[in-house]
Amino acid sequence: MMKMFNWAKAKQKGESTGVTMFGTFMLITVVLAIVLYVVVPLGITAMNSVNLSTALLKLSEEGYVAYGAPTGDWTTLGDLYTEDIYPQADSTWDIGAVGNEYNAGYFDTVWVGNASVARTATYVVAASDAPAHVIAQADYVCSGADDNVEIQAAIDAVGSWGKVQLTEGTYYIAAQINLNQASMWLCGSGVGVTSLFMPNGTNTNMLYITANEVILSDLSGDMNGTNQTAGVTVYLRGPTGVVVRNVEANNGFYNCVYVRDSTGVIIDNLIATTDKANCHLIQMNNSTWTTIINPQLDGGLAQGVYVHTSSHNTAIYGGVIKNLTGAASKGVYVDTTSDYVSVIGTAFYNMYNAVAHTGNYGLVNNCEANTIGTGNAFDISVGAQSKITNCTAMTVTSAGLCAEGDGQLVTGNTVIDAGIGGGFLNIDNSIISNNVIINSNGGAPYGIYLYGTATYNLVTGNRCYTDNATQTYGIRESAGTANTIIGNDVRGNITAGIYSAGTGTVVANNNGYIAPGEIRTISVAITAGVQNTVTSIQNTFGGDVLIIEAYVMISAAASATNPTYDMGTDDDGAGAPSVANNLFDAIPDTAAYYRALSNGLGGDASGVLIQPILWQAVGNDWVNFIIVDAAGADTAGVIYITVIGK
Questions:
Q1: Among residues 510, 529, 547, which one ends one of the domains?
Q2: Domain co-membership, 523 together with 500
Q3: Upper half-sphere CA count for residue 568 (Cβ side, 13 Å)
Q4: Are both 403 and 501 inside the same structural domain?
Q5: C-alpha–C-alpha distance, residues 303 and 355, integer Å
Q6: Using CA atoms, how far apart are residues 105 and 110, in angstroms rounded to an integer?
Q7: If phi over 0 gives left and psi between -120 and 50 gives alpha, with beta otherwise, what is residue 10?
């Protein structure tokens, strides 16, 4: 803590207390005169020409700065600060043996040498129920009625760069408090410690900020909105660079915090709730570059954060938004006129929508949504070139991920138990990739649902499945044109991995689904061993296919001559094939490729299938390769099967 000494008052005290104080003062004066009139002429720079910040640092090394205007010229006091001026435990200051009580709030100027610097004034406003010793030291004391009068008087008196400190206790606000001094700081003693309350029928704003670079911090404000007909708890109208930090703003009539026509506002660690219908917890209107950090918004009937009317470049980081119980309450709602809005790392619980971003160039990243009502969890409808990335949505009545518009990116998300599709997408020229969709249910129980006129989209790398028999399709395309569905894992859905009804859609290389006419080859190494060792391959294409080619590459022939093998379709993947020899019945005793022949005709290096063999998805859904006798037990190689989708 910086300690200050009032030379003018000390001198006055010394004169009235006797020779000791006066003598000490005269000694100091002589020393100062010697320094000023002897040292300075010799070329040592006077204090008033020294860089002020350096001087202040030197003076503050021992924790002291002199203040109050002295008579005559003077410079630094050197060791006198530590030897003759020292703080007492009873909050008094002594020079020599004489005490000098002071109140820092009385003074406006810090003197360093011959230079003066405007000091930051601080006015203390005490609540009517503050402790007696706090009230005794305050500059303004409230009565418990119309406490806005004392707070406003302190703000008006403190001026720019000043600080108004509100003590612990409750303040009753009967009129709007205007924070109209640039760069001032209105500071409470802590959330829940300093409380502002608006009585019934006041019907106006509580705190109204119009000046630039104001700081509002460490207090609670309750506007009592259900008993008002107008007003906002904290209203910013037109300022730049305002900081609202560690503030609780509750129960506004229109909004708890309203940022209008403002630029560069920071709202850090805001707590807000309301029991008033149609009251947004935070609203931006025609405001740019607003940053909201760690909001704690709990309870309301409208929007948690409403980004409205060209409020571009808004960013929301972290925090929790929950329990918004209005019929269409959204955690964050971005209207169509507001672009470049980001929501990063925020958790949402129990509301209609978690995020509804209808502007352009939005980002929803690393957010979590749980127990979302009839709206969607994360929604980037209408706008263009927005992103939903690395988010998690669980227990959603509608869609976990919803997107419309052009050039959207939906990637790296996880959705569990969504009603109308994990991803419900009517988009163009967009990418849907690397999402995990589990147990979609309800009206559209699909992992990813491309509906409407979805066109020229890439759907790739997604994992869509069900473990509770609810999700009928991993990916469903009901219409659209020229989409590409490739490289997804859609095993484990009830009806099929993929359903595609689009025009010109490419469906290929998806695990758990093969498209009609798609040709694919799978392979497996031969399990070498003793007689009756089986190598099994199961149909994982999600439907019946036709085997159009099957061959065995023997890389190490059996040491014995005339080994016997059998390969055919099977119903359980164990033992001899159920349909014996329908693919292969050969005696490959040398290393070579052996292409299968159907109908038990054997095979050789040049043979081909006489006719395709049905490989079922249910029933005979395995292909078994068995070493029939001991002669082939040490065979090594790879089995290749080529199929075509039915």
A1: 510
A2: no
A3: 20
A4: yes
A5: 10
A6: 12
A7: alpha
The pLDDT tens digits for 3-46 are: 333 333 333 333 333 344 444 444 554 444 444 444 434 333 33
pLDDT digits (tens, 9 = 90+) for 436-495: 999 999 888 999 999 999 999 999 999 999 998 899 999 999 989 999 999 999 999 999
Structure tokens at 269: 């660690």
Q: What count of Cα atoms within 13 Å lies in the side-chain half-sphere of residue 153?
A: 12
Q: What does the pLDDT look like over 631-646, one tens digit per residue?
A: 777 788 898 888 999 8
Q: Between these two residues, 583 and 568, which has the higher pLDDT value?
A: 568
Domain containing residue 614: CATH number = 2.60.120
Q: Tell me which of 510, 533, 561 is where a domain ends.
A: 510
The type of residue at 434 is N
pTM above 0.85, yes or no: no
Please check whether residues 505 and 538 belong to one and the same domain: no
pLDDT of residue 174: 98
Pull the structure tokens for residue 588: 């490959």
CA distance 316 to 332: 9
Q: What are phi and psi of 304, to 5 degrees?
A: -70, -60
Average pLDDT for residues 516-522, to the nearest whole number? 90
pLDDT higher than threshold 90 for residue 313: yes
The whole-angstrom separation of Cα 557 and Cα 158 is 97
8 within some domain: yes
Structure tokens at 558: 């059996």
Give a yes or no: residue 310 inside a domain: no
Q: Domain span at residue 108?
A: 3-118
Domain co-membership, 505 together with 527 = no
**Residue 635 domain-assigned (yes or no):** yes
CA dihedral 23, 25, 26, 31 (to 10 degrees): 130
Task: Calculate the alpha carbon distances from 640 to 520, 593, 599, 621 in Å.
Answer: 10, 10, 19, 16
Q: Are residues 406 and 487 in the same domain?
A: yes
Confidence (pLDDT) at 70: 36
Does residue 208 lie within any of the structural domains? Answer: no
